Fold each of these.
Amino acid sequence: MASDPVSQTRNDAAAQLGKDILRVLRRRIGKDQKAAKQHDWYASAILALRDKIIDVWIESTQRTYENGGKRVYYLSMEFLIGRLLRDALSNLGVSDDMEAALAAYGVDLAELEELEPDAALGNGGLGRLAACFMESLATLDIPAYGYGIRYVNGMFRQRIDDGWQVELPETWLAHGNPWEFERLESTYRIGFGGEVVIEGDGVMWNAAEQVDATAVDTPVVGWRGKRVNTLRLWTANPIDPIRLDAFNAGDHFGALAGTVRAESLVRVLYPADSSPAGQELRLRQEYFFTAASIQDIVRRHVQYEGDVRTLPEKAAIQLNDTHPSVAVAELMRVLVDVEGLEFDEAWEICKQTISYTNHTLLPEALETWPLPLFERMLPRHMQIIYAINSRVLREARRAGCSDAQIAAISLIDESGERRVRMANLAFVGAHSVNGVAALHTDLMKETVFADLHALYPQRINNKTNGVTPRRWLQQCNPGLTKVIVDAIGPAFLDDAEALCALNALADDPLLGDRIAEVKRSNKVALAEHIRKTMGIRLNPDAMFDVQIKRIHEYKRQLLNLIETVALYDQIRSHPERDWVPRVKIFGGKAASSYHNAKLIIKLANDIARRVNADPAVGGLLKVVYVPNYNVSLAERIIPAADLSEQISTAGMEASGTGNMKFALNGALTIGTLDGANVEIRDRVGEDNIVIFGLTAEEVAERRAQGYDPRAVIEGSRELGQALSAIASGVFSPDDPRRYEGLISGIYDHDWFMCAADFDAYAAAQRDVDGRWEDKAGWRASAIRNIANVGWFSSDRTISEYAKEIWKVL
């Protein structure tokens, strides 16, 4: 009997891939099959796969050149890309081939995937969004470069010692990175300090210090291998690596000072900026990668197009938050000082080329720099900013703006210590300024950019965030993906909005059972991982209640913990009730200098230690703080979650993307009407999400009217008891006063409305208990969540950027 031609083709492909891996193992790793260890097979598999990617990469680049297409340039301080092996295999459609090829040599692909470190190139949602966007750009066949920094250690590795966060260097590059390509020909000289002098008819910036920025490229594979784009990260090299005269004179440290200063630019993501030295390093990092990127963009354009004046027709530069805002001044410097354009012409080109995404309404997150620091580090850019400011303020005066409005619009904050406002610079230097959720965009117009919006009323627009369904459904949850394919067919693999076909099957008990089986399997796998790594045993039949995200007071992990203490007390006080078993899972990193956030991590671990050791609650409540939360851990936790905690103070979360990932994997959301929760509610329906608490308008009103949290606390018995237990040392017997300050902040001002929202949150959690006990209803709601969040694909988001901002589709 003739063999199945499809199966034979697959067998041939796997056999050929196996030969490729063996060739790489011998010729590039220098080992034969018998001598090879796991890490040798890991490197060989990646390099063999990379060879296939390179062909598509080169073809994609050539196609862009031949078509003369417009490129998108995405500038971001963070790219939280996670592991790339499984992502590339899936998007190229060769996962089965690789698994079979390695199995022929007795090697398990899943074990090799676990060897890949997470790239330490980001912290939270900002960086993961950038990674999702890069994948969607390639999927939609849009030519694009991502620009950032190749951090050697990046965001720290988090260890929990006695409940406290300890920051350790993340050594993800310790054994090299088989995905990357160094591009020595793409090296740019970056200057700092010095002075500006007149030279002929123009000016010359004579920098006092210079370093070289060298490009290191990583391929980004789109779905079904349609296109491979480039993530270009910059590494820093000193002009003179060592001063031999100083070294030979015995000044070994001084001899290497230039190397140390250069390497510090790419060592750590977000160095603490509580000191002047930390502030200077942050500014140097931002200018370093932005200047290299702008020079690279202009060089490429002039090389292939000839005339720098056509830059807006061929390049779209997107600034991901305020970190790369200095790009406005740098592009102006290059256009005026290097390319010789008149200032006004350069200004129009700059605005037409650049667009800016705002990710926060927190004033402290809208970066500003002390004017003396900025002028000392970037004297020419300070001149350019003054020149831009004079034009903008004259325009504002002609438009009839008041003195107060002009003061708010100015690029220089004169209210205290004079500071350069980077968000204002990005706003005036861009033709488009977008928010990342409908509510966030509306609040931008009313709060942080109210006066700029009044001056430029057409500039602000909304682009609600999205996540790539390849990584956040297909790859991290293959069991659920298979069930969905069996139920509605494979169309959703190419268009996530096709998931809506599941709505017709939401009440189908057979589908509900199959999805529940997958969920339980994922919970068993997560429970086993936590048992092995933390020694904590979890019941997979309990509700997995999850809050994993950056630790910040506005995200209100503290509210969750206070309610956990209240629940703990209720379970012990009322053992006769039928309590729903819960596992409360927390994860996230606190900024190194953020005292209260680090104290919240300690509180979570103190509560866990007490609750988990108390036989009075039995298996009804467990608390787990998973250390070193990253993309790979998210890929384990999210498919296993039953309940998604999205409980930020309304009006303070720009969007969130974790909320989308959880819903896509069949978790129900408990949350406030904040960020994208509003749009998720509108998509999944009010019956399939649990909303509680004050709205953004009500939060603003409470603050304006003189909110008294003490009166609220005194009126809520459960809240008062929980706060008293925490503050009095019930959970910190070794240091009874440890949490006094944290809790007194709630009594004194409660800026984040934990007390104001507590009773509503506790009631919502009991509503969740009731829903959980209705298994059929819970499963139907889970299916409706999956069915209706396909709109939150990053493909949709990028398509909107491409059509409405970048004009590339």
Amino acid sequence: MVRYFCCFFLGFFILSLLLLTKCIGQNKPGWKIHQPSLRTKWADDVRQNSSIDEYPRPQMRREKWQNLNGIWNYAITDRNSNMPSHFKGEILVPYPIESALSGVKRQLLPTQVLWYKRRFFISNDYNQRVILHFGAVDWQASVFVNGKDVGSHTGGYTAFSCDITEALEKDSNELIVKVFDPTDQGIGPHGKQALNPTNIYYTASSGIWQTVWIEKVGINHIKSLRINPDINNSAVNVVVLGSSVDCLVEVTAKQGKKVVANVEGKVNQNIVLPIRNVKLWSPETPFLYDLEVKLKKRDSIVDNIESYFGMRNVTIQKDVDGFERIFLNNKPYYNLGALDQGFWPEGLYTAPTDKALAFDIALIKAMGFNTIRKHIKVEPARWYFHADKIGILVWQDFVNPNQGLPDGSRNEFEKQVKETIDQLYNYPCITTWVVFNEKWGQYDQKRITEWVKKYDFSRLVNGHSGELLYVNDKLRSPSPNAYEGSDMTDVHSYLYPRMPPYLTGKVRVLGEYGGAGAAVQGHLWDDLAKGWGYDSINNLKSLRNKYSAMVDSLVVLKKEGLSASIYTQPFDVESEQNGLITYDRKIVKIPFDTIQAINKRLVIQDNNNWIGKVKLSLTTAREDERSYEELLTEYKKGRRDSFFLRSLSILAQLNGNKIDAKELSDEYLRLVKNPLDQSNLKFIIKFTKSTDDIGFWILYNNMLSVNHVLGKDQAEAILTGIIENRHVTPFVSNNNVPKWDDILQTVKRKYGKLGEETVLQAQVLYAVDHKDWNLFKTCAPRWFDEYGSNRFWVGNDLLNNIAWSAFEHSLDRDVLETALKMSKKTLQIDQPALRIDTYANILYKLGRIKDAIMWEEKAVESKKGADDEAIYIEILNKMKNGKATWN
């Protein structure tokens, strides 16, 4: 009996252990938010099975749809790799891969491709088409269903759809999306996204960043609408674009449940709906009519959608004083605006929830603004829906082309301009298109502006916001033809407002002003950065006084004919600390009632409905921050919590107290529990100057983990710089020839392969600088083959400069062959004329004349029409005539 019970309990224990192990395996943790340096309150509402659930296209709603947001699998491969066989990671769609909410928080490089995969279930019904929709994918997307290519799209800001009917299998289907996004290294518009964000440029948002969904439609279905209100004739014009012209449409306008107008017409033809007793749309009264559209064939309804419209117009007219003004609904309407970037600390381009998306608009309105300039970003459709419902005017920027205007960038820009207008045409909130911002990729302004005005005659067009840019009363970018084709003359003036020039028939607007910075400790994206604004960081009382003075200036300018002003900006964004509200949407820097009262000096609007909804979510920042000396006294009395030590370390460094900064930062790093998260790694980098610092060894002993957080090779880049500064620089900074063998042995003994790499790189740069080509021959091939050709941080510019110097100053074939390998490496990703020219010249000097001429012809072609085209033509002619190109 005892033996029986022992066996029974042993068996029961083993069975329980197996069951427990199985349960643990089934419930292993999946997606979770990567801890961002800041987060808004809505981050807590994001769930892996319910991220963004709202129907994504409010202006063309169908009752039945399938949301594909949620957990997908992902993989990252080299750009030229085939579709991966394994997708190991999980990502939450629709948040960019660089964002904390994606669960990945990883940079996508221009040399890489991002792959998404998920399964979905749908029945393929007879006589129906299945349409797969993407709100936006940045930048180039290829879509595969069950291994079949079903469509592609280029452009990171506009929606696209694929008919996947023919690729579907019964019930279960596999969806794969391939994404290439070079951000600011490519030819596509990228706005303020940057691979190396700083100052006014922010973290990139790659991949799927808006909702993905599926709809079933009939073979005959409605594809889109174009709605034009005509308040002067009490009517609204509707064009229904359909998949077939062999259909009729019935269009019904409603006010609540009451039918206002009901008219039948034909597909693709204008249908006029008379609207009696018109209720106008404006920020003060944002009334929207409901719109129902039915597609009919042989008296049967084959498709049915719901939409809405607002009755308003926007024009330029003269007021009673003879000034050209912006008129809304045939009355002068001063546009008091804020420059909204549309970034979020945890979601980057993607707001954490739909409620968060609406909150920003409501908050801006509640502060007393009636206009938002949406700055070089196109938002999801629901943002404009909320702007329509809440009631605020929108100046919509087109997303600028790559500022360097590489080949193909102009076509991509103009394609996206048209797609943006088509996508946003029906939203009454949008009253102005902004073609170019300052000199960010500006070209052919008159032609493009006039095309936009012709394509959309219902809105104003600001052809060039900030062509005249003043900073501290100094003009940075004068231009004699700044406003050709535009409805406006527009200047940017930082800090204080100024009047734009007068031109007959054009309204005068202040496209940007303000930008005064003020930091709120504990609410900073990067507490290690000084923070960026158009002046030195002010205390909060100074910010309030400056803002009040700016509005006083605007009151005067308004009386003199100014029609609009756009303040920079409502929210801090990453390193920019020039918002009225902190980046996490928690702290208002100027008391809320004070901002409202100041703005009412310019415009008075009934915004009480929104004040109560947003005011409770905000706390007013303190104006009485303690001094560094007071905080240091607290430290000496024994305060040692980690947040305090971190903040005090940063203040010590800002105050130039190097000894205090080292002592405090070392103490902080001894306490910190997770030194390898992004925020702490940035702290380590900021305070690590020597191989003796604690931070150096944290980085050295965790290089793989550091690179996983910061990006490829970043640990090595930081460490080699510190090692070189300590062990190499002192021996090459005088006129003596360095004893390279002794240096190499010493450094390699202490730091292994990383030490060897440091010394070899230093040798190469020394050899180039001193034109010591014998030394170059001994170190450069080894450095490049083992290190330089593989390191992401060894940039193309550095390699090109080394190769060019060798070409110019050496006749040695071994030197030139090494330089050629370096030059060839710089052409792998992109091929600008300057680097093509280097490669061609080295080929020519090596006697490979036919190849050299072919490459130089490429350089000439890429410079066609540029100011320096003649230089490349001259080099090409020398090559063809057998003359030296290196004299």
